[in-house]
Design a protein that fits this description.
With 570 residues, this protein is an alpha/beta fold. It has helices at 2-29, 34-83, 89-92, 95-137, 139-145, 149-186, 188-193, 197-249, 255-267, 269-296, 357-363, 387-392, 408-413, 425-435, 439-444, 462-475, 492-501, 503-506, 518-521, 541-547, 550-569; strands spanning 319-328, 331-341, 346-351, 375-377, 380-381, 394-397, 480-484, 510-514, 526-531, 534-539. The longest helix is centred in the middle third of the chain and has 53 residues, at 197-249.
């Protein structure tokens, strides 16, 4: 940037030399021996013009390249910063809005730093030096020439605030439009199922109309500003021709000086016209930067632990939860939960919808932040462990299975910390797919593990997506395995078969199993019953049935529903 600005100053300085040489040439042509004086001056003008062109090209290469590199760094830093944010961050900032900031706003900031800085430096130097040279020729004429400029500054300041507010309004609303489009495309299946296409099309048309009006407001302001400033700048030219013509007639300046003065004034025409465009560019850039700064200033609420690393081979998987309470969006979801999960045990969590089961398991890999002193892994507070170390020890298969738009194998490979660096990865991927009950599905797919699954895994069924996510969780062979109702989209018989296949995987690993089907978790070493965020009962299947309460109610409800379904089929 500094080199580009220096080259730009050199460009403007060389541009100011040419009018001086032009004035000298005019006087030489009126002299007694023009044939001797003019050729050297003409050669000098050509040389200075060539040098000016060289520095002009260099300044643009340096400044625009620097702005492009700044755009690259800014976008990369923003993406890395977003990856450090917890899931709760994206409840405040919809994905579509974040995408708008990462694309449109970053480009606007780049334009401010590229063409914007170029015009600021160019305008400042030309005005500062050019005006000084004009005063050197004739101070009175210079004062007349600059008479409209204070009014131009007032006009510019008057438009600046309106441009900023309108630009910020456009960029904020563009984020809302992007979020709406992203939401509609993500839920296209629901829209089609309920034939909601006409309503969503009308909604988008309304938003597009609003965005058009907001953009037109900015365009109207810019359209008013440019002619106003251009018109005021043209007044200077008329004034100089009138006052300067009288000065030449009166003999106060010669013809060469008048031509030189007009050439300096001509050099100020573009900076004058560019002032309005530059003002708009900076107002839009500042508005965009503030939107980006809001993302950059959002400190991750889940901070990486500063304690020593915990190598995977040293993890036993002993988990101790002590008096844990968690609030999500201002609502207490877990209330004074204490629970011990011995290494190698299988613990099932059951409870009514909203009891806090998923929130509890999300605290273990710190997907939801908890204060220090409440959750311990092998005796170490998880808030002191490096996040990479903690999450490497835990395999997590959520109920909502998210797949990336790549192959099944690559989706499973996400579970491997070294991401393909080990030649045994393919074997581990196939073993994980087998354990997740994917063998029959892979045989029916066109390319097996190399089948592309489309965006969010749209080409697979819900049960297939869940089993791919399950394979991803177990591929890394973690010491702690969390299955958060991760087989809810398969039928009860298939779930039991897959859990039976997982017996070998779960053996020796601390496993936390959540399922709404009692039959799927009755073989767990221990069953923990949650109700309204509190642990209300623990024990084996038979013990909890005998004790009655929430577990017995859930058991009766499940089998009454099953019996009713069987009678309906009959």
């Amino acid at each position: 940037m500094a080199l580009g600005c220096a080259a730009l100053v050199a460009t403007s300085a060389l541009a100011l030399v040419v009018p001086y040489l032009l004035g000298r040439t005019i006087e030489a042509l009126r002299g007694p021996a023009p044939s001797d004086a003019v050729p050297p001056l003409a050669v000098a003008m050509i040389a200075f013009a060539a040098a000016q062109a060289t520095f002009r090209i260099a300044s643009r290469i340096l400044l625009f390249n620097a702005a492009r590199k700044a755009e690259y760094d800014l976008r990369s830093d923003l993406f890395a910063h977003l990856l450090r944010q917890p899931p709760s961050f994206f409840r405040r900032y919809p994905v579509g809005d974040v995408m708008s900031r990462l694309t449109q706003d970053v480009q606007t900031v780049r334009a401010m730093w590229g063409p914007g800085v170029l015009n600021v430096v160019n305008t400042t130097f030309l005005f500062g030096t050019g005006v000084a040279l004009m005063f050197g020729i004739d101070a009175r004429l210079a004062l007349w020439a600059l008479l409209p400029y204070p009014l131009m500054v007032l006009v510019g300041r008057g438009f600046a605030g309106r441009l900023y507010r309108s630009s910020r309004d456009v960029q904020d609303y563009l984020g809302r439009v992007s979020a709406a489009v992203q939401e509609d495309l993500g839920g296209i299946g629901v829209i089609k199922a309920y034939t909601a296409e006409p309503e969503r099309e009308r909604r988008f048309a309304r938003m597009a109309d609003d965005l058009l009006r907001k953009n037109m407001r900015v365009t109207l302001l810019r359209g008013q500003l440019m002619p106003l400033l251009g018109g005021l700048g043209s007044v200077s030219v008329v004034v100089v021709l009138y006052v300067g013509g009288h000065a030449y007639v009166d003999g106060r300046i010669d013809l060469g000086q008048l031509v030189q003065f007009n050439a300096y004034l001509a050099l100020l025409v573009w900076p004058t016209l560019a002032f309005g465009w530059m003002l708009s560019l900076f107002q839009r850039g500042i508005a965009a930067w503030k939107r980006l700064a809001a993302l950059l200033d959002a400190e991750p609420t889940i901070v990486d632990g500063s304690g020593p690393d915990l190598p995977p081979e040293h993890v036993r998987g002993d988990i101790d939860i002590r008096h844990l309470s968690v609030e999500v969006d201002g609502r207490r979801v877990l209330d004074d939960v204490s629970l011990a999960l011995p290494a190698g045990s299988v613990t099932a969590l059951v409870g009514r919808t909203g009891a806090g089961k998923s929130v509890l398991v999300e605290t273990l890999p710190r997907l939801i932040e908890t204060p220090p002193g409440h959750i311990f892994l092998d005796g170490r507070d998880i808030t002191t462990l490096p996040l990479a170390s903690l999450r490497r020890a835990i395999g997590y298969a959520p109920q909502e299975a998210y797949l990336f738009s790549t192959t099944i194998a690559d989706n499973i490979r996400h579970g491997l910390a070294h991401a393909g660096a080990d030649p045994n990865d393919d074997v581990r991927i196939r073993r994980a797919a087998h354990a997740a009950g994917l063998d029959r599905d892979l045989a029916a797919l066109p390319n097996g593990l190399d089948t592309l699954v489309g965006e969010r895994g749209i080409t697979l069924s819900g049960g297939q997506r869940q089993r791919v996510a399950l394979a991803r969780a177990i591929a890394a062979e973690p010491r702690v395995l969390i299955l958060d109702d991760s087989l809810s989209s398969v039928d009860a018989q298939t779930e039991r078969e897959i859990l039976a296949q997982l017996d070998e995987v779960m053996r020796g690993r601390t496993t936390v199993l959540i399922s709404h089907r009692i039959a799927a978790i009755r073989r767990a070493d221990r069953i923990v019953v949650l109700d309204e965020g509190r642990v209300v009962a623990t024990g084996t299947h038979d013990e909890l049935l005998a004790a009655g309460g929430v577990y017995a109610d859930l058991y009766r409800t499940e089998f009454e529903d099953a019996d009713a379904g069987a009678e309906g089929v009959a």
